[in-house]
């Protein structure tokens, strides 16, 4: 027996699911690993731990592919109690910080050990394991408890106290898709309402539902179908045209493909006890008084089961508060973190789209009636206009408000209003305060849970946003990424303004709306407005101009269409469509894009009509704007550097290829590297005197400004000295002295220089000097290839050079090929094209024009290796045409 117990304790948890993937050591693998873990856990049905798992995986895979520089193996395993993720790299000897050493593990701002610090903070368990070939870091996240068993139960009742029902109780089950159309209709539904499944499938539920439309007394059917859970009464119009009152329970679910749908359970109104949640109170004289005394006051008020999400809890709270006081409307506000403002989070009987996330100050005036910290009863709002700003223009006359407090701290406010004056007194205020005291702790707990989910979601969002922004140095792509990350996650629409320099006006650079059909109208509207001021003050500030202009323009267009507008006033003023006005008619905020102590633009976010931003969203947008500003400024600096480099590179090459009578000449130049950094190779072809032309092809050691300086010196010195009448050796000797005069900035230079003279007999005479450069190759008509010059010392190394020139005659059909070492030193692993490879290639070019020879050489170099060329290449081909 003891042996079995020991075996039980050492047995490893049973793995119920496994998924593995390997990611190459490149930057994009980090995002791919995050997507792999997110999709795996989503498929396993564990959304509660996705954010933590994605953040930890991102850090560990970054350590593997970026810091360790090896491929990363990611393994996800699910057991009965949690999910374990293992990330292994192939650098086993790499030092790993120890958890026991605070000095080694460092802080969150340090690069080393940050992944393990996050593991210690977020994971249930974690560790590091070594093998001879791998280092593995793992973490485990326990699955949240999901209690099973009885959720609620009522007391035992005598038979005569049980609710009445027909002998055959029918429960109609109606399944709706995301649009509210019927997809399922069971036999009980057909028996209750007279329609067969074929008659109703595909039709909206609103075609059959008789929804109560008393103003301010219920949630509309569209809103009810979007709630996670809903209970209530309405009517169903049957096949005979009669309306059957029903009691319904709606549950929002998601199918295997992730599409939302709604399951509706319906019974006759008189049989509502079959579906209705536990009653708030038990009839008088009930023998279950002892059970009532021990009932949970929270569930007595809110009902059972209580909603799991904060929005559902708040919505049910306001509905029950309204019903408890027989009001026409109710609303609930939550306090901000600094407790200076209250934010509307739920309402019923009020225009919720306009009120949601609206803010009011906690202290609106003097005395108890001006503070949300004390209960207050307003018998007639018409006497004191503006006493309750949220109820302005709603038709409400009397209102009672009470605070929600936890341990003496204000966490919110609950109010119930009625259209008639004098409806409420201190007695109703006490009843509502009692209910608020019961619900306050649950609301605060749900609010903190929501904030924690938002925090973790925000962290995951910022990690991915930083990864995307760091992956590009293109200005336009950075602007597009900024907008695409905010829409629709943070806002309905977004506009990015850029500021070129402190003296210039902001320019509208990018516009995006979640509805693509609205982008053009939005861009036109913003283009007519003066841009927001580029104020460097951090944080979001409200910009009212877009919504005001949209509404004014839409109204002007509507009046014009009705013939009511004065044609003499604003005769050519364009109008904005009502759809565009609605799309931008909500709150608009502007966040400055500040990088390196300078405002480089503004990020503008907007909501549709009567919608507002939550403070948490604005704080997340502010974090994003700081990262986006730095990425945009880096892209600007990189673009400027690239433009300067390309402009300087062009200045070091001849603007166009010179035409030489009687000789075909073609040049191909390819600058290697992203951004085409200046320096490196160059070529030139220029007239010296009548009938004589100078040509050169060279390669300066290194790249960058120092190499570019020598390149420009060499090219212009060659032209000047050659036109002064110096021969090839003298030109190069003087150029060598000029390079050495540069001192520490000098660079050695390989150069092939020559003079070309076309002859009357169709040939061409060349006098060449090859100073350390790859030798020019001569291709004869018979296919033989030979070097056309001897190697001589390169320039920029020795002071005294003894150079000499060699004469080469190109007969009709002959080709002279000159290249830089970017061609001959092209590599694929240990292989190199080399001089022999170039010679063999040139033997296949007999009969080709100069341009065709240069093109064939370029193709051969590009195909020699799969990787892009790492060195500049210059190819100069000259051919004497055959005599006709």
From TrEMBL:
Keywords: Hydrolase. InterPro entries: Bact_Sigma-Reg, GAF, GAF-like_dom_sf, HATPase_C_sf, HATPase_dom, PAS, PAS-like_dom_sf, PPM-type-like_dom_sf. Residues 173-203 form the PAS domain. It comes from the Bacteria. This is SpoIIE family protein phosphatase. It comes from Streptomyces nondiastaticus.
